[in-house]
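tool_call: predict_structure(chain=1)
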Amino acid sequence: MRSTRMLVAGIAALGLVLATPAMASAGQKHRPAPDPEVRSTEVVAPFNIDLAGKRVYVADGFANVVGTLSRDGALKPVASSAPGAAGVELSRDGKTLAFTTTEGGQGAITESGLNLWGPRGSKVYADTLAYETAQNPDGDTAYGVADPSPCVADALTAAGFPVSYTGVVDSHAYSVAQWGKRWVVADAGANALLSVDKRGGIRTLAVLPAQPATITAEMAAAVGLPDCVIGVTYRFEAVPTDVEVGPGGMLYITTLPGGPETPAFGARGALWKLNPWTGKITRLADGFAGATNLALGKRGEIYVAEYFAGKITKVTHGKKSHYLDLANVVAVESGRDGSLWAGTTIALDPSAPQVPGTIVEIVKGAWHKWSFRH
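tool_result:
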């Protein structure tokens, strides 16, 4: 099942409507939460934020704009025609702006890639869809059910689940991070991390491992599967939604679990650490409901945005703790000055109370007195 379609493509304005995120239970006991300050209500779907010195960059995928945040909350466009904008990051030397774009709809991505805008108007485009078409990094990865019985195969087919397959051609360049002299793209369609050089050359850095789940009676009932599917292991795709570079060049990644993210299927998103030189990938924590973004804290803590749970969770030495309830949270980002920001989307369920998208400042940094450049 193309899990990209279940959340990432849907959130990225490619035609899907998502369920209203559930808020944390009012009966839960947590440490006092920070009180976020709203800095903008003039965004729609700020999928990624980058804190670059005195500037806040935002990729708004519904508005198809990449821009910087102004004092009055307006988004000043840097790229005013950026279809499906999702990832954004300014290089450390301030000379190159990297952002991802994707065109097309459900089942029909027609263009996806990384844009590198440099000095003197230079523009480089790394075509991740063309690379995926030529290389298909997860083309040897087995998904679905191995050796299904006729009953299982028929039931899965009827319910719209691919039965047994390997990675198909699909690219959705989503998040981006600078990694040394290169860039790393979390491609949510390719289920891989791609390394991109300054000329737009692409190579595969890592393929995310398939995510096996044993189908329970509750899962089967939720999607209309018969009893013969109960107890069967289905290998879902792992969909990378964010990548950040930590100490020593280690990469930290959030993934969606593939397949439905409903109460019956449970919270199966994960947080990973990848050694890009050895290829070793370690699961640091799991059980996230819609892990769409992450931020690295100054003391080794990691913040994970859980879209479906409507909250930010903190992970410290592999242990999860509640950090902040924040409805529709889709992005979280930390600054070198210790600041922490987040982005929320509009309410995507028409039946839910309609709220604007926002950019909020959660933890103030050294320059929090709003000295943004215009």
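agent: Helices lie at 3-11, 128-135, 150-159, 217-222. Proceeding to next step.
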